[in-house]
Amino acid sequence: MSIRPGELVIDDRNWLEHVEARVDGNLMGRGYVPRDYSRNPVGSYEGVKPFDIDIEPRVNWPSMIKDRVESKSTFADLRTIGDNGKHVVSLDQNGEPFCWSYSTAGAITCCRIRDNQPYVRLSAHGPACKIKNFQKEGGWGALSVEFAIKNGYPDISVWPEKSMSRQYDTTATWLNAERHKIVDGWMDLTPPVYDRRLSFDQYFTCLLLHIPCTGDYNWWGHSVVAVDPVEVDSSLPLSDIRRWGVRIWNSWTDSWGQFGMAVLAGNKAVPDGATACKGTTQSL
Questions:
Q1: DSSP state, 86?
Q2: What distance in Å separates the CA atoms of residue 202 and residue 192, rounded to the nearest whole number?
Q3: 3-class SS shares of the chain: helix, strand, coil, % to 5
Q4: CA dist., res. 30 & res. 180, Å (int)
Q5: How far apart are CA 66 and CA 46, in angstroms?
Q6: How far apart are CA 234 and CA 213, in angstroms?
Q7: What single DSSP character describes residue 123?
Q8: Which residues contact 256 (CB under 8 A, 6 or more apart)?
Q9: Which of 83, 209, 242, 220 minimizes the C-alpha distance to 141?
Q10: Distance between alpha carbon 93 and the CA centroid of its chain, in Å?
Q11: pTM over 0.85
């Protein structure tokens, strides 16, 4: 089992307790709107390709997870030193309906941590404002992924965290954002409406290969970044969804879960939409 001591686990038994969350007395923002796959099918976003990796057989999953845990190379481990040897602090969407932009910022951040790039704190409010014309509106992960491919994400030195001010929409801001673009392909994963098991095996394969994913969840009305594969109950058959989980990194500050992270287990781990980030701009 790869659940950490004291880690929050959300599954079919307790999910209703976590649909809405308060942190330090404040109601946390969400903002995910389900993607209409009939209008926006897999592969329809510019630069986002259909899943193109061989699916890892489930028989290999336990040993791969064990190796990741024993080598301390999970994202939960890497983020403890990702900020120049210090803990990387979770993002805070500040109660705005911009989770779908923050999940992409989280995926870019994870790629940079994985690739030993210098830590930069990204502004997810900036892309959300540009996409939604500075309106507080919801969306889904692929919207911000496409923006990240075309424009990148600015860091907070040019677009201050949580700001919705138009004064930061400048040429200098978007030149900065180009340093934090997706350059090695986003993959669009098959939605569960087509094949629930296939979508989860694609998702899990990416995590096993250290490829973070944006994950959109209808039951939660929320989008997060999935970072680590988790074995929840090794006594169950490999085919049983309850054996598996995914560690997610939320955008509700470090006060939520275990320093902003938790495990979605079983059915609650299967995303209703997901994109996978293979690599980002190599920059200082």
A1: B
A2: 11
A3: 30, 20, 50
A4: 24
A5: 36
A6: 24
A7: -
A8: 21, 23, 28, 90, 250, 262
A9: 220
A10: 14
A11: yes
- The token pair at 115 is 């690739």
**Both tokens of residue 147?**
């923006």
Calculate the CA 162 to chain-centre distance. 18
| pLDDT, tens only, 98-152 | 999 999 999 999 999 999 989 999 999 999 999 999 999 999 999 999 999 999 9
One-letter amino acid of 171: T
Structure-block tokens of residue 132: 């939604």
Query: Count of alpha carbons within 13 Å of 92, Cβ hemisphere only?
Result: 17
Encoded tokens for 279 = 């690599």
Burial 253-265 (b: 16+ CB within 10 A, else e): bbebbebbbbbbb
Give me Rg for the CA atoms of the chain. Answer: 17
Is 220 within 8 Å of 32 (Cβ atoms)? yes
User: Around Cβ 147, how many Cβ atoms within 10 Å?
Assistant: 23
pLDDT at 1: 63
Q: Which two tokens stand for residue 31?
A: 């903002």
